[in-house]
Amino acid sequence: QVQLVESGGGLVQPGGSLRLSCAASGFTFSSAVMRWYRQAPGKEREWVARITSSGAIRNFADSVKGRFTISRDNSKNTVYLQMNSLKPEDTAVYYCNTMDYWGKGNLVTVSS
Hints:
By secondary structure, the protein is mainly β. It contains no helices and eleven strands.
């Protein structure tokens, strides 16, 4: 049974940083492309970042490029999203994804 469990969200001031984690189980994590998505209030879910199985290739949405990084630890079956220079428009529920599987999401609120 595939499980994706996000953690690390919360309230942060503009300009601050947060790191999200996604602990995975139930599949061969080291072979899987992992993605982060987000859904802001009243908006559709949007893709944020992607990392290949080895971590060699990482891609980012234009809206987060230069501020967010994605990484993974295949020994811990965990993927991370480091979010720096956060803006109010980054406020959203952040979801971890692989194949057709989704985590339940983790809320990030950027506000003063």
